[in-house]
Amino acid sequence: MFAQLDKIVGPGAVLASNTSSLSVTEIGVHTSRPGKVVGMHFFNPAPVLRLVEIVRTVVTEPDVIADVTGFAERLGKTPVVIGDRAGFIANALLFGYLNHAVRMFEQRYATREDLDAAMRLGCGYPMGPLALLDLIGLDTAYEILESMYRQSRNRLHAPVPLLKQMITAGLLGRKSGRGFYTYEGPDSPVVVDSAPGVAPVDPGEVRAVRAVGVIGTGTMATGIAEVFAKRGYDVVLRARTTEKAEAAVARIAKSVNRAVSKGKLSESDGAAALARTAPVAGFDALSGVDLVVEAVAEDLAVKQEVFAALDAVAKPGAILATTTSSLPVIECAAATERPGDVVGLHFFNPAPVMKLVEVVRTVATAPDVVATAHAVCAAIGKHPVHCGDRAGFIVNALLFPYLNDAVKMLEAHYAQAADIDIAMKVGCGLPMGPFELLDVVGLDVSLAIQRTLFNEFREEGFAPAPLLEHLVTAGRLGRKTGKGFADYTAQ
C-alpha cells in the first residue's frame, strides 16, 4: 500500500502508519521517501483516547517528526516520540503483562475472575488482563506478541500456547462472542456465563471466627485491626511492649475518629469499634482468639519466630495468617506444628480502603481454612481472590515484571521516564505510570520483590534491571528519600 501511495502523493507528503507492532522501517523502505515515513499509532477508540505514539526510524527526517508531533497536538492528542521497535512503549509493556496473566490462567494458578479482580482492585486498573484481551481480540494479541518475540527473543513475549489453541477454536474474544468469557453475541460487552475457569473455593464447613488477633504496629497492622474492629470483631492488637501497643491503638482511634467526623461512621459505631480493640504485649493474650493475622516486617526469620510463638499459645483450631506480600507462606507454616491451619491473607495498603485480599493456600492448608478465610474476607467487606503459594501471588507477580520492563526500556534510552509514564496513563488508562508507581512503592522494596520473583521462577526476563539496582545502591529510593526516578526535593 505504501509503495502505491508513494507513486500518487506529492514529494513533500508524509506517509504515516498506525501499526501497533510492525516495523515502520520495513514499511518505509518500500517507498522512495523513507525519510518521510513515520509511525503514528493512535489508540482505540481514537476519538476518545488521547495518546499517539510518534515512531521515528533511523532515517526519518527530524522536521518530519516535529511536524507530525505538532499535528498530533493540534488534534488534541498527547504525543510521545519513540524509536522503531516492536510494541513501541504501551504495547511492549502491556502485552508482556497480558501474556503472563494468560500463563497463570493456563497453569490453573487462579481463576479468570480472580486474575481480573486482583488487578482491578489491587492496582486500580480499568480492566482485568483477561477481559482486556477479550476486548483487544486474541488473534490481534497473538500477532503483537509474535512480532515482539521475533524482535526481542524474550521468552516472556512468546505467546502462551493457550492463546493459539483458543484462536484455532475460533474463540477470539468479544468480536466472536466468546474468548476467556462468553458474551451475549459477537461484539457484545455483556458477559453471560458464570462458570469460572477453574474450580472455585470449596464451600464446605467454615470455622467460627469471633475474636481476631493482629500482630504488629505498622500501618498495615493498625489498618487490619481497624477493619476487623469496625466490622464487629473483638480485636487483640499485640506489640513488643505495652507502650507500642497502646500507641498503635491510639493511631486506630485517630483514624476511626476521622471517619466519624467525615460521616463515614456513626459516633456510636466508632466508639464500639475502639472498645473492642485491646492493646497487649504478650503472646499469651492471643490464646483465646479464633484467627491471628501477622503483619510484622517482611523478614522471614522474624515471621518464623512469630509463628513459632503463636503455635505455642494459640488454641486448637485457631487459624494463623500472614500478610506477607512475597515471602513463602509455607515457610511460616513450617515453623508450627499445625501447617494445615496456616494461610496467607495479603491485604493491600491502606487496608481500611483497599478492597482486595489475596487468600494464599499452601500445599498443606486445610480446605476449611481456605473456606473460612474466604468467608471472613467477605464478612469484613473485602473481595477475596485465591491463589497458590508462590512468589508474588497474583498482583505482584503481574505488576513487578511490568515495572521492571519499564526500567529496562528507560535503561536502553528508548524513551524518557516521563513519556513512558504518559503512554501508560493516557494510552492504557492506568492510574499511575510505572516510574511514578516505583517511586511511591520505594525502589528498595521494588528491587526486593523483583529479586524474589527472579529467584523463584529463574526467568531471565525477571532479572532486576541494573538501573534499578544502581539507584538503590545510590540511596535514591523514591519519594521517601526525596529522589528516585524523579527528584522531589525541588517540588
From TrEMBL:
Identify the SUPFAM superfamilies for this entry: 6-phosphogluconate dehydrogenase C-terminal domain-like, NAD(P)-binding Rossmann-fold domains
Q: In which pathway does it act?
A: Lipid metabolism; butanoate metabolism
Q: Which GO terms describe its biological process?
A: fatty acid beta-oxidation
Q: Locate the 3-hydroxyacyl-CoA dehydrogenase C-terminal domain: which residues?
A: 87-183, 392-488
3-hydroxyacyl-CoA dehydrogenase NAD binding domain segment(s): 1-84, 212-389
Q: Which InterPro entries match?
A: 3-OHacyl-CoA_DH_NAD-bd (IPR006176), 3HC_DH_C (IPR006108), 6-PGluconate_DH-like_C_sf (IPR008927), 6PGD_dom2 (IPR013328), NAD(P)-bd_dom_sf (IPR036291)
**PANTHER family the UniProt entry points to:** 3-HYDROXYACYL-COA DEHYDROGENASE FAMILY PROTEIN (PTHR48075), 3-HYDROXYBUTYRYL-COA DEHYDROGENASE (PTHR48075:SF9)
For this chain, the family text in UniProt reads: Belongs to the 3-hydroxyacyl-CoA dehydrogenase family.
Q: What protein am I looking at?
A: 3-hydroxybutyryl-CoA dehydrogenase
Question: What taxonomic ancestry is recorded?
Answer: Bacteria, Bacillati, Actinomycetota, Actinomycetes, Pseudonocardiales
